[in-house]
Amino acid sequence: MTIQNSVWLGTANLPRYDVLDTDQETDVLVVGGGLIGLTTAIYLQQEGLGVVLLEGGRIGTRTSGNTTGKVTSQHGAIYAGLLDRHGRDKAQQYATANQEAVDGVEELVRRLGIECELSRGPSFVYSTGDTDLAREAEVARELGLPAHPADPAEMGLPITAAAAVRFDDQLLLHPARYLAGLATAFSAAGGRIFEQSRVTDLDGKGDGVEARTAAGRRVVARHAVVATLLPFGTIGGYFARSRPNQSHGIAVQLPVEAPTAMTISADAPTRSTRPWPGGGPSGLIVVGANHETGGQEDTNTSYQSLVDWVDEVWGTKVQPEYRWSAEDYSTPDQLPYVGKAPGSPALIATGMHKWGLSNGTVAAGLLRDTVLGRDNPWSEVFDAGRIGDARSVAKLVQDNLKVGKEFAAGHLRRLLGPGLDHVEVGEGGLFDVDGKTVGAYTDLEGRLHTVVPVCTHLGCPLRWNQGDSTWDCNCHGSRFAPNGAVLDGPATKPLAKPED
Ligand SMILES: Cc1cc2nc3c(=O)[nH]c(=O)nc-3n(C[C@H](O)[C@H](O)[C@H](O)COP(=O)(O)OP(=O)(O)OC[C@H]3O[C@@H](n4cnc5c(N)ncnc54)[C@H](O)[C@@H]3O)c2cc1C
Ligand code: FES
């Protein structure tokens, strides 16, 4: 039986924290308890600042607890493209910042004594198609990265690849244990964390900020860092400047020893692998099957495509022990946004392109320096206020036209059934109830959950995600539980009930 949970969240004890039930004053408010929020909170605390961290759900349980756990400067085959598009200076900044982040994470793990299965090893990107990896290796080396052209056979992956690039001495860890360690160290040193305390509003107040939670509590601070994957609500307009993309993961036992190196394909479809220490020598994690959040009719096919790949590569029939999915955001010019959000008192970090363990560690240092008024060498490449080049603007226009179409077309989608007595156990979807569209799901205990399937962010129609039992919004990536609770923003309010 496959467990529907990330292999990390299923094997870590994340600490629990109280709900915020008294108003607070502090130096810095951090909103969001994923990798970026927790790392920023620790960095600021180490500078002697008072920090309050508000988490809408439970710390570490959204994207950061669902990653592949690779901390590497090898982000697929990106460096030749970065150089061509952004020039040498920015490509250099991106490369150096991320390579330093690999060491920065290791330093934090050792200093805080976090037990998170940390190990060093090679990471390979390989091509089974047309990607020019000879140039990628050359550019990456010129940028000072530990990159080498490699024989694909070195990967230990039994596939036929045309070429590969190896980055030496990259890092692997158990992300949920890493996050648990960060949170424990932060609170042990006097940091205040509150869970189930979703922030709904954030405004300037005097020289600082005031935030309000869904339960009406207030936090007044000199600075606010919004590290909520995508800034919540409409902060900085980032919802219209980035796209949400969901990936799927499986943890399996192979019939033979698993490759010990990290690997990732340069060509679509993405297949990213790493060893799964908890699964023993034959344990393997495979992540991929990417698509826009809310953009796939049946996400079970995404999971199946990963299983099929393993079966084909190893000539076997595996049943995953764990399967999970998560989303991350991409920007039109492929670089994250980190820093001061336009038109808002908030500092933000978003658009990590599925490389937020390293990019997000860079972001945390940049956010700390912005709060302290210090220069930071990466502020230009991650500039949160940029619009980007002409190609980026064209991409933005295209993305937003698509969102407009999604908005208009949503309720014309085929309804699944004429009434709620048609909702089978474990199934969900859109139903017609007395001429109204109702979202319904019957859980495994036979309880029926109904919602108004309209996103509370900006009103787009939602799609039922059968593979994960969530309501997903294709417009800007909000995700909701079957009972309507917010799982991922930018939405801050739960779904309405049909009877409201
Ligand atoms: C499947 C997958 C695999 C990946 N693998 C890797 C990898 O191997 N290496 C790598 O470098 N990167 C990887 N990434 C990318 C990386 O995981 C992300 O970029 C990173 O985790 C983002 O961190 P975050 O803190 O911004 O987001 P999150 O971890 O999502 O944290 C945001 C937090 O904010 C909270 N929140 C949201 N709204 C509010 C609100 N209004 N009030 C209070 N709290 C709120 C959420 O509940 C959440 O806990 C992967 C991504 C995916 C999807
Ligand atoms: S996330 Fe913006 S409308 Fe749904």
UniProtKB/TrEMBL annotation:
Entry keywords, A to Z: 2Fe-2S, Disulfide bond, Iron, Iron-sulfur, Metal-binding
Signal peptide: none
Residues of the Rieske domain: 415-500
One Pfam family it belongs to: DAO
Superkingdom classification of source: Bacteria
Keyword Disulfide bond: yes
Entry annotated with the keyword Metal-binding: yes
Annotated Gene3D superfamilies: D-Amino Acid Oxidase, subunit A, domain 2, FAD/NAD(P)-binding domain, Rieske [2Fe-2S] iron-sulphur domain
Descriptive protein name: Glycine/D-amino acid oxidase-like deaminating enzyme
Species of provenance: Kribbella pratensis
